[in-house]
Amino acid sequence: MVKSLCLILLGCSLIASNGYASSLSDPTAPPNNSKHTSTTKRAALPSLQAIIVGGEQPGAILNQRFVAVNQNISGFTLSRLHQDYVVLARAGKQYKIKLDKVSVKRVTVQGQ
Questions:
Q1: pLDDT digits (tens, 9 = 90+) for 75-85
Q2: Are the C-beta atoms of residues 60 and 78 closer than 8 Å to each other?
Q3: 24-60 in b/e burial notation, b at 16+ Cβ within 10 A?
């Protein structure tokens, strides 16, 4: 009788500890490790170095290269230019990127 009671208690404790152990997190897992990770990753917005509003072909320098209006870069379309920011579009959303440092270079024509 005592033997069967001990077996029943041992079985119950194993069942209870299994349920408890499954709710614990893995101490060896890397930080912020989530079992339910999102499969969609956000694309990083291109960095803005300069805006060219005048001239024959207005555009901007994004990720160290010239991009004209309505051209694509890294999945984004350059849709609008302003003096100190540009607007990029992607998947029906618009993103405003401001130019952090505005540097103005004066160009003079010889003879003036």
A1: 999 999 998 89
A2: yes
A3: eeeeeeeeeeeeeeeeeeeeeebebeebeeeeeeebb
Q: Is the pTM of this model over 0.70?
A: no
Q: Are 98 and 85 in contact (CB under 8 A)?
A: yes
Could you give phi then psi for residue 96, rounded to 5 degrees?
-100, 125
Closest of 108, 109, 104, 107 to residue 51, by C-alpha: 104
Full domain range(s) for residue 94: 48-98
* Residue 33 included in any domain: no
Residues 57/71, Cβ–Cβ less than 8 Å: no
Residue with tokens 């930080």: 31
Would residue 56 count as lying in a domain? yes
